[in-house]
Amino acid sequence: MPIRILTEAELRECAVINHDALAVVEQAFTWLAEDRAVMPPIMHVSVTDRHGDVDIKSAYVRGLPNFAVKIASGFFDNPKRGLPSSSGMMVIMDAGTGFCTAIMLDNGYLTDLRTGLAGAVAARYLAPEKVVTAGVIGTGIQARYQIRSLALVRTFERLLVFGRDPARCNSYIQDMEDMTIRLGIEVSACDSIESLVKACDLVVTTTPSRQPLIRADWLHPGLHVTAMGSDLGGKQELEAAALARASLLVCDRRAQCAVMGELQHAVAEGLMDENAPLELGEITSGKHSGRSSEEAITICDLTGTGVQDTAIASLALERAKSMGLGTEIGS
Amino acid sequence: MPIRILTEAELRECAVINHDALAVVEQAFTWLAEDRAVMPPIMHVSVTDRHGDVDIKSAYVRGLPNFAVKIASGFFDNPKRGLPSSSGMMVIMDAGTGFCTAIMLDNGYLTDLRTGLAGAVAARYLAPEKVVTAGVIGTGIQARYQIRSLALVRTFERLLVFGRDPARCNSYIQDMEDMTIRLGIEVSACDSIESLVKACDLVVTTTPSRQPLIRADWLHPGLHVTAMGSDLGGKQELEAAALARASLLVCDRRAQCAVMGELQHAVAEGLMDENAPLELGEITSGKHSGRSSEEAITICDLTGTGVQDTAIASLALERAKSMGLGTEIGS
Predict the structure, then answer these.
(1) Torsion angle of the four alpha carbons B168, B171, B172, B177, in this order, in degrees rounded to the nearest 10
(2) Between residues A48 and A267, which one has the greater pLDDT?
(3) Which terminus of chain B has fewer Cβ atoms in its 10 Å neighbourhood, N or C?
(4) Architecture of domain B119-304 in CATH?
(5) Per-residue pLDDT for B262 more than 70?
(6) pLDDT mean over A131-136
(7) Given CB atoms, is A82 within the 8 Å cutoff of chain B?
(8) pLDDT class for B329, splitting at 50, 70, 90?
(9) pLDDT at B331 over 70
(10) Judged by CB atoms within 8 Å, which residues 205-264 of A form the interface with B?
(11) Mean pLDDT, to the nearest integer, of A188-208?
(12) What are the pLDDT digits (tens) for B309-328?
């Protein structure tokens, strides 16, 4: 059975930030909530003496022709050698035979894409209808993907960014210039997280922080926060009390957020029961409603799920086939 | 960074049943016992509505340049469509950077190879020095690999096979004819498991049975049994009382055997504590001794470990590089 090998460059042609990709990522949340997905816990290989970690995620969705097994790594000494710290790939399995049908050497691109789009799904259901000012904490890849994806679901006039390194802040503002030119959004840096949060209707946190960056008493009526940086025990972007203060707290997956998301701290401090939050799929499926009023404070805790990987990989594979992309290797 | 893609045909050139491969599989047991390996629990994706299962195993060994992530599947409706039920592949990661360096499209060949060799490691340390008659229960691939590997560590004169299907028994005997011709071993079928066990000094069980095949009271002084068929909750080849009757019970990995090996039943029936058996690596490392006397009854419970996958894949990669095998794809 030949296997289609797709490189990062080819995958960047197949799948981009657009409404089609947004729709499959949103669908993935619904699948999870409707119990159509079999998603085992994340497998974690600690390469401790080399400062590295490998995470393996997978999910089978009943009715889909394929599912993905994603291998993602973070090796934190790589930048010293001029190499990126993260990399990744996906193995696509035929759900009917268990045979490998494709290998996506995406170096983490599809993860970046689906993670940004997951933020847009959260904003779609939880952010106020009218967002004037959006804000982002962090200046890395997700600070870009989250905001570009957000533009699919909300029109906003101003984007504020906070980053500790002014050079990286400037480079972020330059990179986002197309927003200014194409969408007329004014992009500028903010000198404190507090002033950013207070000035925004929507904030996305995208950092690997292990200390709370946003205090509970900065939250104001009508604010939505998506926290997507924390995806490991010990990581934290929001003060635990902020979660308890939200009118509506939503997780991508409760069981994951309780060990690796913002929820872990609220549970540890006894502020919240692990089962109290909704899951985003319970809202996308229509079972529960999202934001209930303009005054509500909403928080979405995203840790990333294997179902999203299966969803974005399925889209990319379908497109690659129709575009004739990839190299076939007989096995 | 280019990635080397190796097909099954290429891997069959790189790694075969020989003393080099036996040495790395034996080494892998020692690594595990010496705590040089980081081996997370097996990840399991149940594709229940398609009668399929995917298992993912991995292990990082400190000091090795690479480690493997193995994806193995079993889809039990495949044979109805003329397809093999199992398939598999390995993704090889650079242990220093986390980048993927190679993909081995081995369709399970490397697993078959290291599983057979693991049986030989067990026999090397646990079987009597002098084996006159060896026996095998089952007539599938492992019935072949176990016995061919056994021939690396023990000289025997007779091989008995038991299988329920006479046609498969005959085809097994024909396939093993090189043993007869090259090694002067007489191969014949046995009409009951009881008579086989009673006639043998060493027995390997290689079936997917869910009922005990070997009764405790058939065990006789001087017998060694390697049970390698059970690798899932519910599978069983030996009566639980047989484990309690052994002078020496050895597991590849206690924690795995207690949930998916023969040990699960002995523990469930209260015949044995989960921590009572030795691990094979505690013997290969020299920390404990193996068979203590010619009269001892020894049993080895093998479920397969990620460390063995990393070991055999590392050998195959090294050989593929030196032989110039594989196709490089830039990612």
Answers:
(1) 170
(2) A267
(3) N
(4) 3-Layer(aba) Sandwich (3.40)
(5) yes
(6) 98
(7) no
(8) confident
(9) no
(10) none
(11) 97
(12) 999 999 999 999 999 999 99
Domain ranges in chain B are 2-110+307-325, 119-304
Contact residues, chain A, for B111 at CB < 8 Å: none
**Any chain A CB within 8 A of the CB of B105?**
yes
Q: Give the integer Cα–Cα distance in Å for A236 and A157.
A: 29
B3 touches chain A (CB under 8 A): yes
Q: How far apart are CA B186 and CA B125, in angstroms?
A: 24
CATH class of domain segment(s) A117-304: alpha beta
Exposed/middle/buried for A302, CB within 10 Å: 0-12, 13-18, 19+? buried
Task: Mark yes or no for CB contact A329/B5 under 8 Å.
Answer: yes
How confident is the model at residue A331, as a pLDDT? 58
B37-72 b/e (C-beta count within 10 Å ≥ 16 → b): bbbbebbebebeebebbbbbbbbbbeebebbbbbbb
Q: CA B321 to CA B331: how far, in whole Å? A: 19
DSSP B282: H
* Across B182-199, average pLDDT: 96
A177 exposure class (CB count in 10 Å sphere: 0-12, 13-18, 19+): exposed
CATH number of B2-110+307-325: 3.30.1780.10
Q: Does A48 touch chain B (CB under 8 A)?
A: yes
Tokens of B308: 């063995």
Q: Can you read off the two tokens belonging to residue B264?
A: 């699960």
Number of Cα atoms under 13 Å in the Cβ half of residue A105:
26
User: How much is the average pLDDT of A244-259?
Assistant: 97
Dmax (CA) for chain B in angstroms is 59
Q: Is A49 on the interface with B (CB under 8 A)?
A: yes
By C-alpha distance, the chain B residue nearest A8 is B331
- Residue A50 has its nearest CB partner, among B3, B59, B96, at B96
Across the range B85-91, mean pLDDT stands at 94
Alpha-carbon distance A252 to nearest alpha carbon in chain B (angstroms): 20
> Smallest Cα–Cα separation from B29: which of B291, B319, B288, B299?
B288
Distance CA A119, CA A228 (A): 8
Decide if B7 and A86 are in contact by the 8 Å CB cutoff: no
Superfamily of domain A3-110+307-329: ornithine cyclodeaminase, domain 1 (3.30.1780.10)
pLDDT of residue B179: 84
- pLDDT given for residue B259 in this prediction: 95
Q: What percent of chain B has pLDDT over 90?
A: 95
* Gyration radius of chain B's alpha carbons: 19
- This model of the complex carries an ipTM of 0.87
Max Cα–Cα distance, chain A, nearest Å? 59
Q: How far apart are CA B306 and CA B291, in angstroms?
A: 26
* Percent of chain B with pLDDT strictly greater than 70: 100
Contacts of B83 in chain A (CB under 8 A): 97, 99
Active site residues of A: 70
